[in-house]
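#struct-queue
[09:14] JT: dropping the first one here, sequence first, then the structure tokens:
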Amino acid sequence: MKAILIDDEVLALSYLELQLLKMGNFSLDIIGKFTNPYDALDIVKHAKVDIAFIDIELPEINGIELAERLLEYDPDLMVVFVTAYQEYAVDAFELNAIDYIVKPVRFDRLSKTMNRILSKSTARLDNPDPHQPLRMTMFKQVMIEEPQSPGQFTLMQWRTFRAQELFLYLLQHRGQLVRKSFIVDLLWSNTDVNKAYSQLYTTIYHIRKTLTAYGKRFQIKSANEGYLLELDHIILDVALWEDSMQTIDISEDNLELHLEKLNSYTGEYLQEYDYWWAEAERHRLKQLWLNTALSVGSWYEDQQRFSDALTTYLQIHRLYSIEEKSSFALMRLYDKLNEPQKTMECYQELTTRLKEEYDILPGNDIQIWFKEWQEKQLPS
């Protein structure tokens, strides 16, 4: 295994090297010692490195940020942090590295680290086909197909809630640059700026380590003071569904296709995640489904297939009972079917729900229609 050592203190580098070379039972080749962290970036960019020993407190760049940038070049790189902090304080970093070592580096402690590295290197996932696409769900709950078990989906395991939220935010904005300053304001607005950036680098580091299980399918790139998430051989259900929702006039020939689109909407976008920033996208996709469902119901009505139209409108109503468009369509259909009691109940339910939720009345067009409908029900 090839290793690099990074510390701004020359004596610390030499001492760590000496301790590593004492371990004759490990085949370790130290290919570089760096006091300048940017030299370490250059070597990882151009050569294969298995292990990086990194001092957390570096003068030009935080060791955690350096690790995050190294992992951008090589997601399989194993990182060991070296720190002058006492062991009780290290937990504050919430690191997901292979290990951390407190200075001065003791031989017995370093030996445990090397055994851990050896165990980790033999236990890595061996994906038989790294180019095999993996499916991923974003409707309702985020799950991903297991690389080793096609057809089986699992939840992605995150070290912290912040790591999960930041990954999902980058995933929503995949292919777009998201500035670090915006992320800090989004996730750590009430935290000291320096500490917030340190937490950002730690969180990105966690995300990169979690994503190593999926090869190069997820790539987080640093550019222009921001991050860019790119996907390769990942099939998102939400993207696939939206691509299929291109506007096509409904006909007998493509009706089944439209019904399949409606039924494949298995839940709202990120439904089980309470992130305010997901609301706009959730609403947009919901409206896309709703408009398609209303179009199908309207087509059924035009074809005099009132039973099918009723089934469609009731499907919408079960999901979104407070939606005015679908409730209005249902009222008018009940009127066509000469079911005044159900017309009345539908209007009353909509009015009650709008009042309770938003303290408003139905739209003027619905109120005017209902008033005229009531007048028609009066005895002549």
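[09:21] JT: and here's the second one, same format:
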Amino acid sequence: MTDRVLILGGRGRIGRSVAQDIATHTQAKITITGRSPGTVQGADFPLLVLDLAEVDKLREAIANSDIVVHCAGPFHYRDANVLKLCIEQGVNYVDVSDHRSFTKKALNYHQQAVDAGVTAIVNTGIFPGISNSMARQGIEQFHEPEKVHLSYLVAGSGGAGVTVMRTTFLGLQHSFEAWINGQWQLVKPYSEREVVTFPSPYKRSGVYWFDMPETFTIPQAFPKVKSVITKFGSVPDFYNHLTWIAAHVFPKSLMQRHSAIEFLSHVSHLMTDVTNVFSGIGVAVRAEVTGKINGKNAVYSSTLLHENTAVASGYGAGSIAQLLLSGQLKQPGVWPVEAALTTDLFTQTMASRNIKIEQQLRS
């Protein structure tokens, strides 16, 4: 019997990338959803018109699936109802969520998923997602891992739609807690610029504190780690300065208005339509772990580069779906990807997608 995959938000660019990856690596029958009828560019998947607010229709669609992949962001606005319905129907679940509040809501369903025998993996895109597995790979090199420093860089629009712009601006609204030196400390978004060396063509680029769910999921998965730093930046660099202004100069009351977020998101997307021509739409991830090996200090770093951010995100979620469908990954409960995916399976799926991760360990 052919496996059935339901991709919520499958008409978006990341959703389409996930669908294409699953189609490439499995024989599954894929259905994508959108809130309105219409053609889907560059994809040959049946479309189910579905609004997530239509609970009965959503429940029926989930019941007729073997796995659900939730790509309908931004996740700042989402509750965990899709996950709840998957657990009720005994259907495995994957998402590309990228926001702390949503991740916490999802993890609250852990025991229900265990009891139902449902494996649910959250945060499976590129960052969080592939980046988290890169961090796990580094942590496993150490007897005493101490610090994880994750840096993300996106060129232009990243090949994604306006939703990604919304996610960026929504992430500037509030200070957030980060795990630093064994305690929770409040950090201002888009603060403490740091210049990090990425692979060519990006090389030395600026990154800033950004609220990501791995700031708390990595310490939970690996309690020995005393600090987790997550920083994000854009190419070209002037976008960083504009984002910094939005975070630190614009009144907080303005940045917390839905209308302001929409305006900034659409203007930014129009700007990247112009700059994409020379900046590209790629992504770079750098994971650096410091700690002790046999009592001696060491530093492990790994880097990943891809020419299309949305496609790379599709690889992350698609690979998890592939492993669930094949039965290679079966771990009932709700898990952030770094807590469920072994490094062996991670390296296998990345290699099958021609993703090269450069690694270096130095003492």
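[09:30] RK: nice, looked through the second one.
[09:31] RK: DSSP finds 14 helices and 16 strands in the chain.
[09:31] JT: good to know. The CA atoms of residues 14 and 310 lie 5 Å apart.
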